[in-house]
Amino acid sequence: GLAAPALAQGSNPQVRWRLASSYPRSLGTIYGAMDMAVKRVGELTEGRFNISLHPAGELVPALQVLDATQSGSVEAGHSASYFYIGKDPAYGFGTALPFGLNARGQNAWLYEGGGQALLDEFYASQGVLAMPIGNTGAQMAGWYRKEIKTVEDLKGLKFRVGGLAGMVLAKLGVVAQQLAAGDLYVALEKGTLDAAEFVGPYDDEKLGLHKVAKYYYYPGWWEGSATLGLFINPKAWAALPAHYQAALRTAAAEANQWCTAKYDVENPRAMGRLVAGGAVLRAFPRPVLDASYKAAEALYAELSDKSPAFKKIFEHWVKFRNEQVLWQQFCEGPFDNYMAAASRRK
Amino acid sequence: GLAAPALAQGSNPQVRWRLASSYPRSLGTIYGAMDMAVKRVGELTEGRFNISLHPAGELVPALQVLDATQSGSVEAGHSASYFYIGKDPAYGFGTALPFGLNARGQNAWLYEGGGQALLDEFYASQGVLAMPIGNTGAQMAGWYRKEIKTVEDLKGLKFRVGGLAGMVLAKLGVVAQQLAAGDLYVALEKGTLDAAEFVGPYDDEKLGLHKVAKYYYYPGWWEGSATLGLFINPKAWAALPAHYQAALRTAAAEANQWCTAKYDVENPRAMGRLVAGGAVLRAFPRPVLDASYKAAEALYAELSDKSPAFKKIFEHWVKFRNEQVLWQQFCEGPFDNYMAAASRRK
């Protein structure tokens, strides 16, 4: 149930919340960021604002976290907004759109570029509040039993990929499949699946997919970054004293940054182990990327026709994305590319 | 003076700190991040932990902020650690080293990669505590009256550039100069200076340098990112209740992320205005970058001979940097480069 109103209990009331996650404990970065924020809120309030975090399935099934938060059966949820694009495609922006913003751009859009205000308005219409609580950075494009050499190779490809990426790839003939992460190994081994994407080296390594689908493709253009979300029931939020609200907001921002830092530490080392274990790295050929980009643009036009919320946010988002991509070519890009060139020279 | 011990006043004592900044209010990103953190600490503690922030010169001169914090004449300071490499070159790591980590890498190193623990040890030996409080992202390489077409063009160049970058460039014949930001316009106009670097479009625009030195070079290889620092007197820190310490630490992390977001929103727009106002963008030629990289490596060998603290931290840092640069070539780099290519196609 919802927390009791705080004011009756003085300025530092004891508040207990239940927080349901869509993720398991084993995801040390994604789940770890949520766990870090919950603990920090405890520290900031001397234990008076107590949030108990529950992994997927413990209180509610993974994909019902948003609904449970909206209804108030839990005060808060930890999930990815794009799991809910079936309700409205505008849920995509809170996590990632194909050929979207990288982690720097996504943070800039959300925290200072006007993105969060647009999302707040949309989420209010959905009866929920949300804030960022972790970003994965650019993801890998997953594991493939055979090489993808041409756009033709995508036709009929039985690929475990979800959401907007699946909708883009369907336009190129991919047969998008939804399977739980734990079922991917067997499906790839048996050949009922040709390919599967998950996150990146650190998370993928735990699934062992390199043993059954050795080609590891990049870049994962559908997730140039992906933001995880902390969803909050508006009544539970309104019942908090202002300094407890500040504690949750500040702890969430800290965890958002930490999540990417943790990935950036762990991914290179996991990648080294995967390659040593037989993974073969492959870049998507340029024509495959171009065809995918064109298909994504067609999808965005369709979704804008279908959803007024998507259309409104997309117009702001795409302008912002294009500014970021242009700027990057005169600063971050040349620096990063030179560092890469210098490292290859040795 | 130092804050009175907190425990005698109950668990939420009134604490007042004075915080001296090396920066003026006009730097909306750098100063703005410190200001944001101070206000957040107030919110988190219902105004009980009150930190008054003072711009450069109000309490102490800009470059004496560290000393004032060490001595306890202020409880805390806001500065850039690399201003103090004259004390020990190991002060460089807290901000930036030439050909160093980009913002993602720097955050990863500091927050999760073991970097902060190494810096903590070094700072303890210096009688101070420090935490990150903002990152500029990759900087531009500044404003030049004439083009830099060859390594020879660096010889005798009167360039306003400081710290380790100045030491690297001195090896290539640059005459490194130190001038206050406010004096650069006149010096470039008169020709007593040939070139000057500051930060990036958003900060540079305020100085108007494009009117007197139109070539705007990139990448600023000496600051692939630059971390600002919150310095704290260890006795003042120890006197804080644990939840006030947590408030300061969490607010600083939030501000660190926000600073980069603010730059990423403002820089592209400022760049557009600068180019419209006559700035001419130029990339350093590859041989200039290669010669600079080689000179930086030579400098790092010298500094490692000179300072045991530099040597210890450098060994950890360079290994971490190389891991980051390698990983980036299979994920962030190909994604960002494809987005750039797609934008140029239009």
General description of the model:
The structure is a homodimer of 346-residue chains. The first copy, chain A, is an alpha/beta fold. Chain A has 2 domains: 7-138 and 225-265, Bacterial extracellular solute-binding protein, family 7 (D-Maltodextrin-Binding Protein, domain 2, 3-Layer(aba) Sandwich); 142-223 and 268-303, D-Maltodextrin-Binding Protein, domain 2 (3-Layer(aba) Sandwich). In chain A, 45% of the residues lie in helices and 14% in strands. Chain A has a 6-stranded mixed sheet, covered by helices on one side. In chain A, helix 1 packs antiparallel against helix 9 (242-276), helix 5 (163-170) crosses helix 10 and helix 10 (286-306) runs antiparallel to helix 11. The radius of gyration of chain A is 21 Å and the shape is globular.
The computed structural class of chain A is: alpha/beta
Helix content of chain A: 40-55%
Q: Beta-strand level of the residues of chain A, as a percent range?
A: 5-15%
Largest protein-protein interface: A-B, 76 and 76 residues
Q: Name the helix and strand elements of chain A from N-terminus to C-terminus, one letter apiece.
A: EHEHEHHEEEHEHEHEEHHEHHH
Distance between the termini of chain A: 61 Å
Seen as an oligomer or otherwise, the chain set is homodimer
- CATH fold-level assignment of the largest domain in chain A: D-Maltodextrin-Binding Protein, domain 2
The low-confidence runs of chain A, each spanning 5 or more residues with pLDDT under 50, are: 1-9
What is the residue-averaged pLDDT of chain A? 95
